[in-house]
Design goal:
Length: 168
């Protein structure tokens, strides 16, 4: 089974909790292993710059518990195309874009569930792009492409029988 490595640079525990719960849902739907590293202080991100670690997806907030910036992370080393900027402050998302980050999802604490939904969709798209179709059975691949729904803030599979027969 393929392991997708996610680096979550986030200091808000409510956000971390909701994202990790969704990652559990994604694991079940995609039948992949997600390895999630959560860091809440910029000094931990500094350490990563000197490590040999690799990540498939990076969720990048800006502010951290140590009153520093996660933007200290060497994005070029890890791959700009793997980064989603998730700051609640528009200027920090803009700063990430100026560094080359193309994916930005604004974290709105007043509508945190919508933010979690948007991140979930983006992460699912990134996972789909990384897993070759021949590594998934036909049903799982079709499910991963277009058959999920968010109900009661929970990610679940839709009934795909009708869609599968239409594709064939």
């Amino acid at each position: 089974m393929r392991t997708i490595r996610i680096l979550l640079l986030e200091d808000d525990l409510e956000t971390v909790s909701k994202l990790v719960e969704r990652f559990g849902d994604i694991e079940k739907i995609f039948k992949v292993d997600l390895s999630v590293m959560v860091l809440s202080e910029y000094t931990q991100a500094e350490y990563l710059n000197t490590s040999q670690m690799k990540f498939d997806i990076i969720l990048l907030d800006r502010d951290c518990k140590a009153c520093g910036s996660f933007h200290i992370l060497d994005l070029n080393k890890f791959g700009i195309d793997k980064v989603i900027s998730i700051s609640s402050t528009p200027r920090w998302n803009k700063e990430a874009q100026e560094r080359g980050v193309n994916m930005v999802i604004w974290k709105d604490y007043e509508h945190l569930d919508r933010f979690i939904d948007a991140v979930t969709v983006q992460v699912m798209q990134m996972i789909t792009a990384q897993i070759p179709p021949d590594h998934l059975d036909e049903q799982t691949h079709l499910d991963s492409l277009f058959d999920f729904e968010l109900t009661s803030r929970k990610l679940t599979k839709k009934d795909t029988q009708q869609k599968v027969s239409n594709v064939r």
